[in-house]
Write the C-alpha cells for this entry.
Amino acid sequence: MFYFQTTNPHKFQEAKIIFEKYGLKLERIPNKYKEIQAESLEDVVIEAIREIGKERVFIEDAGLFIDSLNGFPGVYSSYVEKTIGNEGILKLMKDVKNRNAKFISVVAFLESLSPLKIKIFRGEVKGTISIEKKGKEGFGFDPIFIPLGYNKTFAEDINLKMKVSHRKKSIEKLARYLEEAYG
Amino acid sequence: MFYFQTTNPHKFQEAKIIFEKYGLKLERIPNKYKEIQAESLEDVVIEAIREIGKERVFIEDAGLFIDSLNGFPGVYSSYVEKTIGNEGILKLMKDVKNRNAKFISVVAFLESLSPLKIKIFRGEVKGTISIEKKGKEGFGFDPIFIPLGYNKTFAEDINLKMKVSHRKKSIEKLARYLEEAYG
C-alpha cells in the first residue's frame, strides 16, 4: 500500500486510476502540509516531504508556467486560481501573441527514512493559453489550457487530460518505479 | 543594537530612519530566510522568525491586498511583482470600478529564545490602485498605489510614503516598544 497526501480529491482520483493500471494500491491522506515559498516545485515538495517524514507517502505539486508572463503563476498557481482565477489569466493574456505555456507536475516520494531516500519524478506538458474559457471537467486552469497538437482544453476533454497531462506523466513515472521496486 | 534581517536594502533604509528617530541602533542582516506559503503575513513571519532563532532580530513581510481581486497579490506580492509587475496589476484592474486596496506590513521581533517570546506589530494603509504607473521612487507596487486622502502615488512622493506607509506604522510600533523596553 502507498499513500498520496493531498487535500485535492481530483488529484487523488487521477493518481488512483494510474496506480490501478500498474496493480498498485493507493490510499489518500487528506491532511494539509506545510509548503515553503520557493522558485521551483522541486524545492517545495522536497522540503514538504521531509517535514511529513513518513515512509511510502508521496506528495505532488503542480503549476502553470506562462512564457510571456515570466513563468507566472508558476509555483503559486493554486493561490492565483483562488484569487484572480481563469478570468484573471485571460485578462492578463489579452492581446498577447505568445500564448505558450506549460503545466509542470513534480512528485516527491519518501522511500525510506533511514537512510533518508526521497525520489523525485517530473512531468511536463506544453501547450497554449486559450482565448476563452472552455469546458467544465477537471479543475484549476484546465478550462484555459490547450495541449500542443490538440484543439481542445483539458476541461473539454478529460480523457485527453488523463492521456497527456503533466500529472499523468509524473505519477506514471512513480508507478513504474514502484512496480519495478515493489511489484 | 537590534538587527533587521532583510534582503531588501530599501526596506532597511526605511526602518533605519525610524529607528534613529527613537535613538535606537539598527544593523542589517542581508541573508535570505525560508518563508512558508500561508494565507496571512502573520503566519509567514512567525514561522520564519522561529526558524531564524536569534534574539534581537526582526523581520518584516508586506503585501498589497486588492479588494476586487480577492486580496491578490497578497502574501505573494514580491513574486507577482517580479513576474507580471505593475503592468500586470494595471491590466487586471482595467475597467474595474472598485479600485480599493491596502498595503499591510507585519513585523516579527524575536525578543527572547527561552522562554520563546515573539512580538508581532502590524501596520496598514488604505488606498486605491491608480489608472497608470506614476513616479520613480520607492520600489515594488509604489508606482500604482495612491494612499487614501492624497492624490499622488507612493513612488511620486517618497516623503508621503515615509509618513503614512504600512511599514512606517509597523516599524514605528516596534521602535516605540523597544524604546519603552530597552531605551
Observations:
- The first strand of chain B starts at residue 2 and ends at 5.
- Chain B touches chain A at residues 34-37, 44, 69-76, 79-80, 82-84, 88, 91-92, 94 (CB under 8 Å).
- Chain B has one domain: 2-182.
